[in-house]
Design a protein that fits this description.
- 39% of the residues lie in helices and 19% in strands.
- By secondary structure, it is α/β, with parallel strands linked by helices.
């Protein structure tokens, strides 16, 4: 069985006759008939009923055609990919995004990249306090991330500011901290379990951004798990406003009144290595992602605007 035979079968089904298929394929009608006869002999089933004026697919022919069309579509994709690679496009781009970055403004940008480079493979990694390290260590091509303080190699990064992410200390309404009728001090917070996200990279395991010194901690692997722990009243913790805005509005979580985390906003940057070669797809992604505004009123709610 060959791709050519599958193509002939598909073209006969599309055009409705051996003659029309031969014309569409710029071949002799005898060559089309020969290709189908060989395919039927090889598969051991009749694919076309020839008793009528126009050939019609048998039930077996319909089943084979369905599979054939999938194979032919995959072949077309491979040919287009080859064309893109010949033009210099890299086959994939690796992108790391910090877990605190809201995906709302990122998704439209990635969608545009996908539309302009439909055969590009995107490898997306969500990191906690590690996206910058992934760029520096050449594990990814681009990153959208906070900057890690005093990390060697950060001077070699090209950086574009995209805005900031606001984090709020929150807990469930039934938590003891929520019942305090006063502005909370550090000592008040330290007496209760803080739910945290550790770094996803061993190189930054000692970075404890936002962690209350001296407080007992519970760790979660991602913000979804952390949110569920907080909703369950198992502690307090810092959460990006974009992930808990609805919880705050409905009262499932409350923002703690404390001086320690007043206006706790973290600048976010698009970053890449200055001296690393970037292919056309990576350059396009950089260009499109650089237009993101994390603080645009077009996607954030009224609560974050305030």
């Amino acid at each position: 069985m060959t791709l050519d035979q599958l193509l002939v079968l598909s073209k006969i089904a599309e055009t409705g006759s051996f003659r029309a298929a031969a014309g569409a394929l710029h071949r002799a009608q005898s060559a089309v008939s020969y290709a189908i006869k060989n395919l039927e002999d090889e598969l051991g089933v009749e694919l076309l009923c020839r008793d009528q004026y126009r050939p019609t697919l048998t039930p077996a022919g319909e089943a084979v055609l369905l599979k054939a069309q999938r194979v032919l579509a995959g072949t077309d994709e491979i040919l287009e990919l080859s064309r893109q690679l010949k033009m210099g496009d890299e086959p994939f781009v690796n992108l790391a995004i910090s877990a605190i970055v809201p995906m709302g403004p990122v998704i439209p940008a990635l969608k545009e990249v996908g539309q302009r480079k439909p055969h590009l493979i995107l490898n997306l990694r969500i990191e906690v306090l590690a996206a910058q390290i992934k760029v520096q260590d050449d594990q990814v091509d681009l990153a959208i991330s906070e900057l890690l303080p005093n990390k060697p190699g950060s001077e070699d990064l090209e950086k574009l500011a995209l805005g900031h992410v606001r984090l709020l200390p929150v807990c469930a309404p039934g938590h003891k901290l929520a019942l305090e009728d006063k502005r909370l001090m550090e000592t008040d917070l330290r007496m209760h379990t803080q739910v945290i996200l550790p770094s996803t990279d061993a190189a930054t395991k000692d970075v404890r951004a936002g962690v209350m010194e001296g407080a007992g901690t519970w760790s979660a692997s991602d913000f979804s798990s952390k949110r569920h722990l907080l909703l369950g009243g198992l502690g307090w913790g810092l959460m990006p406003l974009s992930l808990v805005d609805e919880d705050l509005q409905t009262g499932r979580l409350i923002a703690l009144d404390t001086e320690h985390y007043t206006d706790f906003s973290i600048p976010i940057y698009l970053m890449r290595k200055r001296k690393k070669f970037q292919g056309p797809c990576s350059e396009l992604m950089w260009s499109i992602l650089s237009a993101i505004d994390l603080n645009s009123k077009s996607w954030i709610g009224d609560r974050e605007e305030g």
